[in-house]
Amino acid sequence: MQPVNHNSPVAVIDIGSNSIKVLVAVRDAAGTMSALASRTIDARISAGISKTEPLLGEEGMARGLAAIQELLATAEPFSPARTILVATSAVRDARNGGDFRTRVKAATGYDIRILAGDEEANLIGRGLTSDPALVDFKDFYVFDLGGGSLECLLFRERRITQAVSLQLGCVRLTERFIKNPAAPLQAAESTALALHVRDELKRSKFRFPVTAPAAVFAGGSMSTVRAIKAARHGMSFEDTPAIIGTDTLHHMLDDMAHLTLEERKAVPGLPAARADVFPAALITMLTVADYGHIDRFHHSLHNLRWGLAAEALETL
After folding, report:
1. Helix or strand or coil: residue 301?
2. Of the candidates 35, 32, 14, 13, which has an alpha carbon nearest to the alpha carbon of residue 24?
3. What is the distance between the alpha carbons of residues 144 and 124, in angstroms, rounded to a whole number?
4. Which pLDDT band holds residue 1 (cuts at 50, 70, 90)?
5. Could you give the domains of the chain?
6. Cα separation of 153 and 4, whole Å?
7. Quick count: other Cβ atoms within 10 Å of Cβ 245?
């Protein structure tokens, strides 16, 4: 057997509730990680996630498997030394999550590692500390909103001191509170959703310090906010400021609330596959900000996949 080249890349496929993503990453001689490839497919495997006993549907599992196979093909030309498949809330909570894992194993030869909520939160934190844009951050929050869950972390001196995973994902909340996602948002639904998020934050073990430190937000929903801003200002995503004020989120929610689903799908920068759950995502982000007395978020792309890549690269 040939020895592993410690400059070899690793590939991570993150099977989320709303999207499935791949990252191919490598570490240079100085220890800095960089991405060789990154791609996201909106597969929505999590329909029905809000039910008492969530069940992955046949169509969702088929979409998920097809997306995984496509992303494995994306990673293959880089000859990764290790390829890791992980799943979060949708597969973790589904009664038939094991069936999906068996199907993926039979089709691809890869096992899926199921991340517990606290494990997911801690790996997200590890990924965030690899972001060079956050190198000067010492004390800060991290929030990551997915389709099934919301991860909340607090760092002190760049070490995690709190980490919780809450069932507040935007797909889950849309199914529970938005009666007709194809219609404009109803004020009563928005209020009920926000109150639920606030109540869950209050009931959780996560505590917000009296003096709020900087706050980082990761995940597809905040990426969508930034993409919409980029489109509105005729800028590239990369050139759009990574700092998102809560005033921006309020204005965006006001704009989206009056639109039908078909009208939201036509909004530049808003992926059609996210248009139905985006209002719930905005309400959730704004409720977190209000509850934690936060007036702006720093957006980062270095979340779960980067934490998993860092973990994998250490073991080569």
Report:
1. coil
2. 35
3. 8
4. very low
5. 10-118 (3.30.420.40), 132-299 (3.30.420.150)
6. 34
7. 13
- Measured N-to-C along each axis, helices 97-108 and 58-75 cross at an angle, to the nearest 10 degrees, of 40
Nearest in space to 15 (alpha carbons), one of 63, 69, 87, 67: 87
DSSP letters for 241-282:
-SEEEHHHHHHHHHHHHTS-HHHHHTSTTS-GGGTTTHHHHH
Inter-residue contact 112 to 68 (CB < 8 Å): no
Paired with 75 in beta bridges are none
Specify the residue for token string 């997911």: 120
pLDDT tens digits, residue range 35-93? 999 999 988 887 666 676 778 889 989 999 999 999 999 999 999 999 999 998 889 88
Distance of CA 127 to the CA centre of its chain: 12
Q: Which helix (H) or strand (E) holds 69?
A: helix 58-75
SS3 225: helix
pTM recorded for the entire structure: 0.89
- 147: nearest Cα among 240, 54, 65, 228: 54
The answer to whether the beta carbons of residues 230 and 236 sit under 8 Å apart is yes
- Token digits of residue 230: 């980029």
| Tens digits of residue pLDDT in 258-313 | 999 999 999 999 999 999 999 999 999 999 999 999 999 999 999 999 999 999 99
